[in-house]
Amino acid sequence: MIEDERRWRQAIEQTWVVRFPKQQLATFGATNIAYYVITEPVYKDLEPGRDEGVIRTGRVIAERPTLITPTYALSVQGFSSEAYDYFRNVAIQVGPNSPGVLYQYRNEAKGLDIVGGTASEIAHRISADLDERKEDMSVVMVGVDDLWDVTLLKFVYEFTSSSLAGNIKDFNSRGMLDPQPEFGNAPRAAIQQIERLFAEVEQGGSTDKLKSELDRWGLFKYYEDRFLSLFRRHR
Q1: Which of 10, 101, 153, 222 sees the fewest Cβ atoms within 10 Å?
Q2: Same domain, 143 and 210
Q3: Is the pLDDT of residue 1 over 60?
Q4: Do 151 and 219 share a structural domain?
Q5: What are phi and psi of 144, to 5 degrees?
Q6: C-beta separation of 170 from 27 below 8 A
Q7: Confidence grade of residue 153 (pLDDT, cut at 50, 70, 90)
Q8: How far apart are CA 29 and CA 231, in angstroms?
């Protein structure tokens, strides 16, 4: 375990971004980022006089950022036990309905090529080509061959951090983070989502989905009569 930690920490230290995307993460839509991760091949030490680089390409798709609260996060499956402890602590510190932003990504690996040149030279060549073609949503990175996905994760973390302030500003500008006192100070975005689901049920949508969302936000008690009336109305 200690050796694994030492290796990924070393990989992070040897990772650097040559070219960042020209735009931040979209607040109200998905963001599609093409990536180029360049590394020295693992056999480099066996052939020290041979300059070659490995290019891994693919896409990182960032789903539309989602507003959540500690209450909501504690009701969603898939996090680690440490993450749930963190959410409980946040709930105590800032309140159960304090809004935050959840980012979800998926990686779609595309291909692998080996070309001549050092990793740095290759990265700068690719960057220049992308600039010429005005490929604004592309990133070029140099990393470690057997831990290249750590390189990708480091970029994801840094890109998310750099976009967070702008995303929150966009949410604020639309009043989506405004607490709603009549609903236990849940953010307006949560209430809007609940209203959309009620409208969907009126059109034949799933009551199970609506009930699940009410429970995740901790809002069922505020909507109980309205929710139960849906069944009385359709008898």
Answers
A1: 10
A2: no
A3: no
A4: no
A5: -105, 135
A6: yes
A7: confident
A8: 34
Q: How confident is the model at residue 90 (pLDDT cuts 50, 70, 90)?
A: confident
Q: pLDDT value at position 218?
A: 93
144 lies in a domain? yes
What count of Cα atoms within 13 Å lies in the side-chain half-sphere of residue 135? 17
Match 């971004």 to its residue by tokens: 17
Domain count, the chain: 2
Residue 56 near residue 129 (C-beta atoms within 8 A): no
pLDDT of residue 195: 96
Q: Where in the chain does DSSP place strands (E)?
A: 16-19, 31-39, 52-62, 66-68, 100-102, 105-116, 138-143, 179-180, 186-187
Q: How many angstroms separate the CA atoms of 129 and 192, rounded?
A: 44
> Would you state the structure tokens that stand for residue 141, as one six-digit string?
């990175």
Residue 41 has pLDDT above 70, yes or no: yes
Q: Which domain holds residue 49?
A: 2-65+103-173
Other beta carbons within 10 angstroms of residue 183's beta carbon come to 19
In whole angstroms, give the CA distance from residue 176 to residue 224: 23
Q: What is the pLDDT of residue 47?
A: 64
| Whole-prediction pTM | 0.80
Same domain, 107 and 49: yes
